[in-house]
Protein 1
Amino acid sequence: MADYAMYHAMGEQQPAGNQNPQYQQQQPQQQSGNSQFRPPIAPSPSGYQQTGSPYAPQNPYASANTEAGAQAGYQQTPPPSAMQDQGYFPPAGGHTPVQGQDGMNNLSAQMGGMGLDGSGTVRKKRNRHAHHEIASQGSSQPFNGMQQSGGVQSGLSTPNQFTGQQVTPAMSQFPASVNPVYSPSPQTQNTGASVTPAQGRVDPEQIPSIARSRDAPAAYYLEHVFPTMENHVPPPASIPFVAFDQGNSSPKFARLTMTHIPSSAEALASIGLPLGLTLQPLAPLQEGENEIPVLDFGDVGPPRCRRCRAYMNPFMTFHNGGNKFVCNMCTFPNETSTEYFAPTDPTGVRVDRQQRPELTLGTVDFIVPKEYWTRPPVPLNWLFLIDVTEESVNKGFLDGFCEGVMSALYGGRNDSEEEEDDSTASKGKIPAGCKVGIVTYDKAMHFFNLSPKLDQAQMMVMPDIEDPFVPLNEGLFVDPHESRTVITQLLNQLPQMFNPDIMAGLKNPEPALLPALEAAAGALAATGGKIICSLAALPTWGRGRLFLRDDNTAVAGSDAEKRLLTTEHPAFTKLATKMVETGVGADFFLAAPSGGYLDIATIGHVSAKSGGEVFYYPNFHSPRDTLRLSKEIKHTVTRQTGYQALMKVRCSNGLQISGYHGNFTQHTFGADVEFGVIDQDKAIGVMFSYDGKLDPKLDAHFQSALLYTTASGERRVRCHNLVASVAESGGEAMKFVDQDAVVTIMAKEAASKLPEKSMKDVRSAITEKTVDILAGYRRNFSSTHPSGQLVIPENLKEFSMYMLSLIKSRAFKGGREPTDRRVHDLRMVRSMGPMELSLYLYPRIYSLHNLDDKDGFANENGHLSMPPSCRATFAKVQEGGAYLVDNGQICLLWLHSQVSPHLLEDLFGPGYNSLKSIDPFLNELPTLDTHLNAQTRNILQYLENVRGGKALSVQVARQGLDGAEYEFARLLFEDRNGEAQSYVDWLVHLHRCIQMELSGQRKKEDTASMKLSEWEGVVYQVFRYHEEKYSGDSIGHGVGVECTCFFG
Ligand SMILES: [Zn+2]
């Protein structure tokens, strides 16, 4: 338990820099630049030429060790064992430099023909796989499995930084010893063979922890780069990392559920895992990552396979001196066009390879010529469609929205002029050439002429909402900088203009949404573009008016509830289809200030089908929520956005696409996926099935191509390429599972089953699938374990918890849930990327009352030192504690009723020394001169930087005082909640189902809740074993097998 008197003392001994509490100014490492959270610096943007240079900063491991030690110091459980001291880093002064050297050589060998001297240290390879031939040209060689088993000497491979067991960071949540053979985790040591055997129960301390599974890799990837061709599972999606594209796309863009793919459908079925790919094609880059190159092949367009139309990529091979190239997808031998011809060197590598990003990088953008156009591309047009009805005005939503638009366009209402000339400020704003328009609506529509020639905006009222037209030829869409004065003036006036208290006789409380949307879509039909629409009440006026469908009487799980989760409104459906056709999409900002029903099922359908997003404020409160509103409008306008988009995924012969999951339009099965708009936060899932058998001698290839127009008006194709090995057995594939990809694919698939299936059936299906996967592992891979053990594969260690969270999430949970919230979350799950989903399914929780002095500040390398995160269970909540709980959607500051007055004053300022004194509508922390305040704001800044599309604003949840406490309880996913099980009970339940499956007694329906009492006598133990099947040069087969066992 923390000593609060001591805590306060800590607050007093602040660093001198604290007078200026802006974190940036506090950095002792000023030279490290503008961002204290900067990741390690990847090699320079010239890419492959640079691969020979050390890929990571030359941090002496001594300093890394210091950090490891510091990390250990944060552990709440005391004394770090010797093993923990070694932690994730080899002993100081070890063979690190040698590793680095070897890593370089190793990489150069992989990439082939890079002009690097890789002689001498290249390991021998088994010649089993045909793609060795390709390897010499810089391809998939490491996917042989060699890297994994031989990784001991590879400086580039992350595992040996962790342990000698070639454990990827994702797999290894324990700081393990360097001894590769048998290394019980510190956990195991702490707990011995069994946990509290006296009680005969599972010790919740010992079950796999998502919190721990994130912290260790997060610390590791602060100082290390993830090279994408290594034969390892990617880092956890929820943590920041710098990826270095070596020909395989970064996991930020694309993650396969497994990087070794079973050769047949039967082998895949035996392990129960889905074969799928998550794609977030415009995912944002992190500082330190190389920009995506934009390649222009002029009128002939990018080189492609003549048969399957795959785009040129690093895995196509050149023959006949460069005259032919063989497609890696369909193996068709193409003639190289004269424009694209370059001779090959004696090893078969094109001489110009190093100068050609499309031959060296997994992700590139191709500029495409006219034949890819449907019309001449122009910079994106934005139309703000603003609800000015009474509710919107009176509840402060209109005011907040106008402020948000100004913030998005100009940086804010007040900091006006000085930013005009600031050229750097243009970054993150609307790209040059983009135009904006403003239309407001209530029962009528009001168009605004924003021409810069005018003194002020001219309003044109369109009262005819039955057959609306756009009454403006010019001045509707304008350059936001040329018309800045007119626009800011208008946005400042709008809240008054439509205030019924000021403008007598103006009472139009009902919004006519559909006619307004149709007019907006019509105005954009010629060019394509994006609508940003606000709405603060159920649109009950005019054509397409909606009704209070959800009167809270529909029984959960009933057909009536199902109907509420979808729309049968033909006009909204038709509008969505039309918008996609014309390259238009819509983001909605929906507020229900009085907590009322909005029919998001119908309204949100428009954004779901057109590739947009819904930002929903269920109990909008001004001014608390205006901060978030403003930030989210700014984000939606400034994030990377493309429009008129079409996506296609190609894969190797033997596989075929069996389905797409996400928010998009697909006209027929097998057709390309269409988006009116697409942005950096949107992801889809792609499922594959077999139409034959894969050749284990070959690799499996995947390529996604997104044809889109950039916001700056360029028609491009963004290509992502992935390669995977083909595994002869399912068991081998199981070693290379990407947990985040599996979770994402399963969540998206589950969300797409609704509303056709009932909520209960979908929850059952999630449970079934979880059992299938764990039983599959048991059957294939760990039959040597006694049958009484629950065995969990190391790479899927937290998978069960994520699935439990999915069942408990708002999207899928049992019991009553307002259908607006339910359908909103369902659609979000369908479009979220793996990072946002991971946070949604398991929040990050940090305790503030016992922070180490160094937490929340930069370490010696200029990277933010984060405290360890806590498990999402009330059992971990300490009396008198203060916690930040962030799930990427909301961020709660939960305060225990006995929290120290000193802590409160340090956090909120003098005089705020009791829970009652704190403003419950606070949305950010004040800037104070205390150590704790600075630490907390820095941690919040980190959380804001590492999340998906939603903005961060703080919501206070004081124990016993605030309604937000319920949300806090809901986010404690490990606890029993409503009808859903606790984590421990869930594992016991899964264990029983697996046993029944293995003994052939499982009934598929048997997913009824299990009571822990039926499993009295369960004892539990964690151990890991290591399997070494390889020796000498014939490596590549045996891989360290990690698993966690529970003795049942
Ligand atoms: Zn082809």
Protein 2
Amino acid sequence: MANNDDALRAMQNCFRSQFSVDEAEYEDIEKNRRTSSVDEDSIYLGCTLSRSFKPEDSDFHHSPVIKMGWLDKTPPQGTLIFQKRWVMLDEQYLRYFQNEKEVYSKRVIAIPSVTEVVNVGGQKFEVVTRNRTFLFRAENNTVREEWVSVLKETIQQCRNSMDMSHMNFSDTSGQRASGVSLISKQGYLEMIGLRSKLYVVICSDRVFLYRNAEEHSHGVGITSIEMNLGTVKSTDKRSFNLTTFYRTFSFVAESEQQMGQWVEALQACVSRSLSSNVVAQKIWAEEANQRCADCGATYPDWASVNLCVVLCKCCAGVHRGLGQSVSKVRSLKMDEKVWTENLNQLFLLLGNDRVNLFWAANMPPSEMLCPSSDSEERQRFVTAKYCQGKYRRYHALFGQEEALNKALCNTIQTGDVLETLSLVFCGADVNCYTGDPELPSPVSMAQHYGQTLQVEFLTHNHNTELPGSRAGDHTVLEAALPVSHTGYLFKTASSTRAVTERKSKGDFSRRWCSLNQGNFSYYESEKSSSQSGQMKMSDVLCLVVNPQGKHGYGHSFELYHDSGRVYLFGEDSPDTVREWIKAIGKALVPPVGEDLVCWSFERVGRLRYTAGQSFHCPHLGWFSLGGSRLLLLLHGEDQVDNIDLRKLQELSVQQEAGAVVLVNRGRRLHVEWDRRPDFQGWLSGIQQGLGRGDSPLDQQQLTETDVPVIVDRCISYITQHGLKSEGIYRRCGVNSKITALLLSLRHDARQVRLSEGEDQVDNVANVLKRFLREVGEGVFNGHQASLPWLHTTTVSEMRERVSKYQALLHSLPPVNRATLGAVINHLYCVQCFADENQMNMHNLAIVFGPTLFQTDGTDNSVGQVVEELIQNYQDIFNVDAEQLQRQLDMISHVIKAQEEHAEEGTPSPLTICGVYLERKEEGSELLVQISQAVSAEELVCEVLRRGNIPPQQGDYWSCFLVNDNQEMERPLHYQERALAIYFSLGKDCHLVVKRNCYMEAMLIYIAGKVDVSRNGLIKFSDEKGQKGKRTFSRRLCVLDGTSLRLYKGVKSTQPERECPVHALKVYYGIKKRLQPPSCWGMTVVCEQAERDKQLWYLCCESENELIEWLATFMNLQHDGDLWPAASRPDS
Ligand SMILES: [Zn+2]
């Protein structure tokens, strides 16, 4: 019991917060002590341990104690009155205490700030720092020698280590060389009971007390306070208590605001100290390990044990996503057992900086990560760095496996693990045969030579995938088609940019070239034994075939090397060059991609892209481009696909996002921006292939049915709005408007939206006529080709004429045939409404004869041909009568609905609903007859059936409510009643059936969730507020079974906004005018009462985050039922 009493008394003593100024430690007041009024050298923070104190306990010290013991220390001014002090030395600090039981030192001296340790007479020695000298006396010379030598050694070790100090005592700016500060707050604070202020520094997970700022700059302080188990509480407006296990420190800040900041910073410090554990402390002892190897975030507490890098939580998450075969991610905090002494030592030996000498040797500053990088950047970077080995330092032996293995077997006998790492990640085989039957494997050999750290490294890399060898990249390195070709070519000096200027023959020199086993080399002549240059085909990014006559040698091609260099070769003989192109092309692409090079392409090569669900994981794809055709072999596919660029739904250059986006048949492909010179060529080639309004028909933007988008747009518009317009196609319209409209359609027809309006009908009609009249070569493919059509009119028998027209139609190129078909079909429909529009076949033929034949109208036969084409439309174009009738019925329905709508101003009780397939575009609208009871799922089925799209596994088709004006869209839940939605559509809204690209990810997310609610920070804006520029600000967003609530801050108790879950409609997208901070936004329509409709704009930081919020909304609103359990029936 007595023991307990003692302990209690000691504890009370500790918490009494009493301390006295240690007069004996009095010392001269240094100059420039304006800011501080502490007159004493130090402060006695009387607080002793109640139980036996083991200083070597790592709970108390970050570093193990090297030496401790009693020494005499003089007070300043050389009064030579020695006082006994308990002195303790570790790697980072020399400190002394009132006695061995004290927790808080009287003085703490950072080792890096010690400039010298000097023996002086009489068992004394001096520890010299920049601003003062400490004189100690040992009890005898032996003890003194021990102290002096151990001090010198510690200082030397400290200097040898790459950085000067663990804590930056010696650093005046508080910034490290790396630019990363560990100090979260510093400044003067009044300590209650003390006459003067103290300079308090919160550094990492400790708090340091100095008498003033200058002391801080000199690295000599009073004490440091370990913050584990500490608590921080404000006690008054400006004052707060810091309570540790031993003592309460009461501070007073200058202002209430300051107090808040201190409390916050100290609380963060406490949590840092709690989370740091033994392993982390050990790993961080190497200073380079105090920053994430990838993004530089401080105190990374994760690591990849095979790549030998210490990582922050965010980067570790990305590493984990690469799979164990690439990066074995372990926590410093939670996976303690992994951290054997050897592994610890390995990480101390290597350290992030040294390892990055390998991994990041060739990293352009523009691609560097920082702690605030978003997840997409992180993903891209980490993949490039470790999966592809993009930035690594290539070993001199790279590519020579035997030599690499030999070097590995030699290196593992030494302590140079960094070299081993460099060899292994450049292709040396960890499991190779050493050649020594006694020690057959590198591991056994390393063991034999006592290289335990080499063993450790090799063990973690037994089955690591090599950088650049991932399935997608694999094909790059393995051009497996055995091709060889030799011959003379003319070559210019290589350059670092695309060759734009014409090179004359004088710029070329004759070279003997050889392509063999994936290597392309060139020599001075056939007889030269040493090559003048060589490149591996696996390093060639792109082969470009130049147009004839571009350079002095009529036929030429360029090779774009991975290094950024461009090589130009030429010859006069087209055959020679063709053979070379064929050979190089084959050696370039993977075997399954042979189709890529078996046509008259203009360029072939590889590009990095992301697509679909693997949005965050870029792959390599092979592409070849010629005219409007883009062939592609994507990752994991064994067949070359092909894109008709004229039918490309969208091409957008997102320079900021570093991508070019291609949308083809509803599928998006993000091609990564590349700084190397071949990329611009790809981009401009693709842009040229898109089709242009001033080109002949076959080089126009086209619909899926090969009709120019301009023609398709105009016909659809007239069909909807002009069929009953009297004198349609005969009236002339407003010339200036026609010219402007045609110009914008020619520029980019897909972007043009034809607006409604009575007079617009005639303008659009005239745009169509003018386009057909002016388009290069015309619909009949030139004057010569049009003559047989006109001759047909001389044939007497109509039946014979029809078969002649049929034959002529088949002789037309596909686009001309499709265009003529579309125009005649349209004219057929127009004349069906002749009662209203007064345009019968004959009248239409008079107008369209000269238009389609591009003549002045003096030849009557042109009108006759067109009239006969309309008249015999079904026969000549082989149209099914039923199909034609259905088309006419639908047109009537649409017109009727429009009329009723116009008369009543209310939605007509339609049972036919216009739904677009994949996107809103003229020609993609399907009219579907549905009843009130039809669900969105049934509507989707019907549309897919009509669109001839068989349902495929993994395709999630939804019906989207798309609002063009608001730039937002919402997938209908599969059980929603489609017709009700259709009736409620506003003018700018329509229904589109397309793939729901988030559904799969949402289902996966939901499946992995236990708690259905979600909360997190999100950027928010609302409809209210100032016009024009809108600002998004952070809100805490809480979404649970009852409501969506937005809070201004984490501590807010009252939500700023609240809306019940059932009253929410969630749309993908935010209108661009609001300048959302990222492209991952959603618009939440909150309709609590009929008249109270609010739009809230919520913006996420990543696509994943967006998907998670969307999934949570759907999950809550539909009780987990996001998607029909059984797959859709086929019909
Ligand atoms: Zn990081």
